Amino acid sequence: MADRPSARAALSLVTDTFTELPYPERHSAPDGPLGWSGYDEARARAAARTGETESVVCGVADVDGTRAVLVAFEFGFLGGSLGEGTGDRLEAAYAHAIAHRLPLVSLVATGGSRMQEGMLALTQLQRVARASARAREARLPQVAVLRDPTTGGGWATLGAGADVVLALPGAQVGFAGSRVRPPDADPTAYTAEAQVAAGAADALVPPEELRTVLGRWLRLLTRPSSDPASAPRTCRTPAGTRSAAPAHRTARAPPPTWTRTSRPASGSPATAAAAPTPTACCAASATTGAVRSPTRPRPARPPAPPATARPPV
């Protein structure tokens, strides 16, 4: 996807009422926890370019009538990477969702952990996974929307760990980013379409349909219906046809008693007449060449002859 909307643009796709949550304050050392030369300048340039102070925006909004906590990544801010500040915001968003019994929706667009913070950046994935587990223990729905790109730890935690995973068409999705893949890797394997085909994502949703589809999922997950489910389509009875009840009774009936009969020799005139048909519920044995038929019960086995007494020596 050449066009990568900002976090605010992604939020506007799903809601018109977004209220940003207060963020925890963090006072970092110059150039971050590792003293990475130029880190502060890179953050300042990213903030000027995007208007954000961190790579994620968190808040509360109504999505097609359902209140939810929304988390939107800003890929323009250092590639949407996860640092300590990102972890603070995500953990606070999960805590707000748990405290107010709200579902959480993640609009993911990230390249993974932030290299300028080293191992401390990797521990943010643990914080996110722990917060997600707490929300799951509280039985709160979690929905992920995979934007371009969704790679690294962001895909492994917020993406793959959600209850429902939706993806925008053409998005780059996979654990390995484009810079760390093998040279001979098939790029089509790291797409939203490939993840849906493999079962790692649930559905492709065009941006113009995202609000409706996301709202429907949130309603299903937060307000389950108390009415009994209707019968599947294959069992419904159209007007003027027989009911499906006899088919149900037949399917639940005990299996018939099978008996073995000899198969005629191949090429004989009786072969065609004796050939089993699907309607006769016959089955041919691949090992003995016999035909089992449910039309007659199995004949009783004749009694064994009495044993004769051995004469004394």
What would you say about this model in short?
The protein has 313 residues and is of the alpha/beta class. The chain is 31% helix and 17% strand.
Question: Which H/E pattern describes the elements?
Answer: HEHEEHEHEHEEHEHHEHEE
As a percent range, the share of strand residues is 15-25%
By secondary-structure content and strand pairing, the structural class works out as: alpha/beta
The biggest beta sheet reads: 8 strands, mixed
- Per DSSP E runs of 2 or more residues, the count of β-strands stands at 11
What is the number of helical segments per DSSP (H or I, 4+ residues)? Answer: 9
What are the segments in which pLDDT stays under 50 over at least 5 consecutive residues? 270-294
Which outline best applies? elongated
Arithmetic mean pLDDT: 81
How does this structure look, described?
By secondary structure, the chain is an alpha/beta fold. Helices cover 31% and strands 17% of the residues. It has helices at 7-14, 39-50, 84-99, 118-137, 152-159, 192-198, 210-222, 245-252, 270-274, and strands spanning 18-20, 56-63, 66-73, 104-110, 142-151, 164-167, 173-174, 203-204, 259-261, 283-284, 291-293. Strand 3, helix 3 (84-99) and strand 4 form a beta-alpha-beta unit. Helix 3 runs parallel beside helix 4 and helix 4 packs parallel to helix 5 (152-159). The longest helix is centred in the middle third of the chain and has 20 residues, at 118-137.
